[in-house]
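# step 3/5: fold
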Amino acid sequence: MINKVVKNAQEAVHDIPDNAVLMLGGFGLCGIPENCISALLKKGVKGLTCISNNAGVDDFGIGLMLKTRQVRKMISSYVGENAEFERQLLSGELEVELIPQGTLAERIRAGGAGIPAFFTPAGVGTEVAEGKETRVFDGKTYLMESWLKADFAIVKAWKGDTAGNLIYKGTARNFNPMMATAGKITIAEVEELVPLGSLDPNEIHTPGIYVQRIFQGNAYEKRIEQRTVTRI
């Protein structure tokens, strides 16, 4: 069996070049590949196109790479928590493609499934539709959207085995599973790395066939983006 286990995040991202297209899993600050982001910061790779639901915050997640000007383009859905992202967007320093959240998820899923395009009603009649083909089905207008694929997909899971089979925990099972299928090389960082055969096959969310590299991460902050409590 192919040895997919690497020592750490630095080894996992060692061959990511300048101008690469990356998918980074997570929703807000939940389920993000914290260790790999730190390794990319240290590596200093530039000109990245990052596909992620959001752009982190100013001092955490992808926001750290924006701060160091490592990101050339963001393909995202929700970006409202990052002041540096806003500044770079308004100044023209950062290229941005904003996509409805469901469309983003489906474009990534399509990339993993080998489906080059699909039709959706989301975005019809808005700026999202500019330059895109539309068709009418059953009297309703739909917009054609294309797949999204990446040179590297970087995901975060709760538990994984040495063959790359992954289990996500709670809401961290967000964009990670679909991104894991859509990268030429998928890198998985996990909180717990276990021997092959330790996971219940019925509980596996991402089969190891999609994963090329896996390592056990450490020192996860698991920040909460917006803490809301109920007053009694």
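# step 4/5: annotate
The chain has a mean pLDDT of 93.
# step 5/5: archive (pending)
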